[in-house]
Amino acid sequence: CKVVVFLMAISLFQTTECYADNPMVQTNYTADPAPTVYNGTCYLYTTHDEDTIVNNFYTMNDWRCYSSTDMQNWTDHGSPLSYNTFSWAKGDAWAGQVINRNGKFYFYGPMTRNNAGGARVIGVAVSDSPTGPFTDPLGKPLIANNGAQDIDPTVFIDDNGQAYLYWGNGNLYYVKLNQDMISYSGGIVQVSPKPANYVEGPWFYKRNNLYYMVYAGMTGGSENISYATSNSPTGPWTSKGTIMGSQNSYTNHPGVTDYKGNSYLFYHTGNLPGGGSYHRSVGVEQFKYNADGTIPSIPITKN
Ligand code: FUB
């Protein structure tokens, strides 16, 4: 195993809080962070901006996996899957997420199809291990509904066992996944009204009986991170404002988790040398929810 990140910055005033270097991965350009906790370890899945940018656009072929037991030192597990895992895909390995159910790990991620006009669709892959390898159980996309809009899946299993997959660029959609996690029942539902200034990158979870939808929003020239809450997994959603302002990459993308009693927001910027909108890098900040469950404004730290 290779340890990728390491400098520890200790606050002068809060010596118990230690942070990883930001950007936390300095060996690849990474984006679209998606954390999950399994067996006491925090696994972080990211996308991967290739060093060589083609056609001045996102050039992304595989997903990466890192893990940590202290949120400061991260082990690089390489690439557990790529668009080549899916026989029907031709590229654009964009923002994905992994969830554990009954000892199996389910990955959901968007790609462009190698037929049907190259539409962006969402695939599912399965593994017995959080670090892969993953295989495609369907041999076809799970979600192929809206052409360019089917990106950025986020998955959550509620306390009653019902799993939800939300996704979308421009509009927000969801389906109720079946227990097998590779099919769904009922139709695709478009969320209306969508949360304020919603663009893409939803991250869906529940805390203290309140459902959270954290997402990339737009009020200026580049994306911020905003959120909405609901008393129901299917809304209606109450917009709660922006928690992280625009950074130096056009996009941003949230991933939120609790780990060992603390709360963390993962995001991306263009803060590595050579960085920018197509060379992004994942960072992480520890934060504390307010007593009423609202999320404070979260500044980024750089080391
Ligand atoms: O990384 C490619 C796309 O950019 C993601 O799918 C969006 O969330 C945005 O970060």
TrEMBL record:
Protein name as annotated: Carbohydrate binding protein with CBM6 domain
Similarity comment: Belongs to the glycosyl hydrolase 43 family.
Domain of life: Bacteria
Signal sequence extent: 1-20
Tagged with keyword Hydrolase: yes
GO terms, biological process: xylan catabolic process
Sites annotated Important for catalytic activity, responsible for pKa modulation of the active site Glu and correct orientation of both the proton donor and substrate: 152
Catalytic residues, chain numbering: 32, 200
Record bears the keyword Hydrolase: yes
UniProt GO molecular function: carbohydrate binding; hydrolase activity, hydrolyzing O-glycosyl compounds
Biological source species: Lacrimispora xylanisolvens
Keywords: Carbohydrate metabolism, Glycosidase, Hydrolase, Polysaccharide degradation, Signal, Xylan degradation
